[in-house]
Amino acid sequence: METAHLVELIDAHKRAYGVSESELARRIGITRQNLHLWRTHGLRGLPARTTLDGMAAELRLPYVQVLEAALRDAAYLDTTGHVTTTEKHA
């Protein structure tokens, strides 16, 4: 099974529990603007551990599931779950 993107996990939670984007962002520990940027521009880097912990707790998901989604979105994992590497050739 392919790892979901963070915003897909967030959207599934919003649909299931009827919470607003602003309220969900607050509960996770990020701003609504930051959540909007994730949605429109993707992740530019891996969120802080405390953010991922907050997201896992609020979304009622295992931490590893949230971490995998973040790693995939930040391009640390490819779509198959393998670590991506960049090799420099001399």
UniProtKB/TrEMBL annotation:
Superkingdom to which the source organism belongs: Bacteria
GO molecular function: DNA binding
SUPFAM superfamilies reported for this sequence: lambda repressor-like DNA-binding domains
InterPro entries assigned: Lambda_DNA-bd_dom_sf
Name of this protein: XRE family transcriptional regulator
Organism of this sequence: Dietzia natronolimnaea
Upper classification of the organism: Bacteria, Bacillati, Actinomycetota, Actinomycetes, Mycobacteriales
